[in-house]
Amino acid sequence: MTESIEDTAVELREIERLEGHTDRVWSLAWNPTSGVRGNPAVFASCSGDKTVRIWEQSPSGAFKCKFVLEETHTRTVRSCAWSPSGKMLATASFDATTAVWQNIGGDYECISTLEGHENEVKSVSWSASGALIATCSRDKSVWIWEVEPGNEFECVAVLQGHTQDVKMALWHPELEVLFSCSYDNTVKIWADDGDDDWSCVQTLNESCNGHTSTVWSLSFNNEGDKMVTCSDDLTIKVWGTDGLIMISGDGYVPWRHLCTISGHHNRTIFSVHWSRDDMIASGAADDAIRIFAGNKDAQDDEPMYKLLTNKGKAHEMDVNCVQWSPMANQLLASASDDGTIKIWKLESRTKMQ
């Protein structure tokens, strides 16, 4: 008989504290090939120091910085994302450009620079097929780029709809449907009508139980039928859709609000990430990390998600990003204004009977 989560006490144990960046660390991204076919775990981090660092887990289990990507961006690097193959890394910067890097002959080279945004690029994301990249900016726009042969990237759409700074753009894990969240308190969902004509098919705002302040981050569950968002309004919201064929001959299957998780962070929640085994991590300006899990036996008057563990003072300053590893061993990486990255392991111990 397997133990339910209620029978298990869980704690987040710090495994490693990584130093090297000389300014705040904004974002992290695990290489999707980490742990696959014997590959070591690898992740990228980006910082206000204008650099990107690539960290690799050694056989001993410790993470070491293997590469420093520098002298390309001239301002803060705000976001980084690996292609689905794990062979290319895109980095978005306050210098209004997005760089694409590739490991060539044992060293990372910038193979392309995507230009067009008027000012700071806040986020970058690859589609599940690897054929499209999305970028978003303080200029209120979301751009879609097509990956072409010979490491060429062509802008195929500029999406206007947000009325303020766009904080994050993220492709659905299976479909070529794009999600963006903004300082305008909304999440927008964008889809192609089949003729390369991209448009907003749904806006999740206050009128549909959405957020009442800036939406900073979003993430999908493993199946892609649920999404979690976090906000300056101190809440985490879970959304669901009834159909993964969201764009079909029958039209668009909308997303709807499922529940709101509140009362756990007392300052802006900057990052949420859903693990492969259905746990949600959150990081916030209260320097804390929280882990939530689905409450499968919840009654009508009980929350759908419950707090599993709370790591207060996880960092000395704001937690800007939390990211679960794609490997089976469920490591969590966090990035902070304190200039450090921490690696955590979720450990269970059976409660005394």
Which features characterize this protein?
353 residues; mainly beta; 0% helix; disordered N terminus
Short description:
The protein is mainly β and 353 residues long. The chain has strands at 8-18, 25-30, 42-47, 52-57, 63-69, 77-82, 88-93, 97-104, 107-115, 121-126, 132-137, 141-148, 152-160, 166-171, 177-182, 187-192, 198-204, 215-220, 226-231, 235-241, 247-248, 251-252, 255-262, 269-274, 279-284, 289-294, 305-311, 319-324, 331-336, 341-350. It is globular, with a radius of gyration of 19 Å.
Strand content: over 45%
The CA-CA distance between the termini, in Å, is 16 Å
Count the DSSP helices. Answer: 0
Helix and strand pattern: EEEEEEEEEEEEEEEEEEEEEEEEEEEEEE
What quaternary form is this? single chain
* Global structural class: mainly beta
Describe the protein in words.
This protein has 353 residues and is mainly beta. It is built from no helices and 30 strands. A 4-stranded antiparallel sheet has the order 1-30-29-28, with no helix packed on it. Strands 2-3-4-5 form a 4-stranded antiparallel sheet, with no helix packed on it. It is globular. The protein starts with 7 loop residues before the first strand and ends with a strand.
Layout of strands and helices, then pairs:
Elements: E1 8-18, E2 25-30, E3 42-47, E4 52-57, E5 63-69, E6 77-82, E7 88-93, E8 97-104, E9 107-115, E10 121-126, E11 132-137, E12 141-148, E13 152-160, E14 166-171, E15 177-182, E16 187-192, E17 198-204, E18 215-220, E19 226-231, E20 235-241, E21 247-248, E22 251-252, E23 255-262, E24 269-274, E25 279-284, E26 289-294, E27 305-311, E28 319-324, E29 331-336, E30 341-350
Antiparallel strand pairs: 1-30, 2-3, 3-4, 4-5, 6-7, 7-8, 8-9, 10-11, 11-12, 12-13, 14-15, 15-16, 16-17, 18-19, 19-20, 20-23, 21-22, 24-25, 25-26, 26-27, 28-29, 29-30
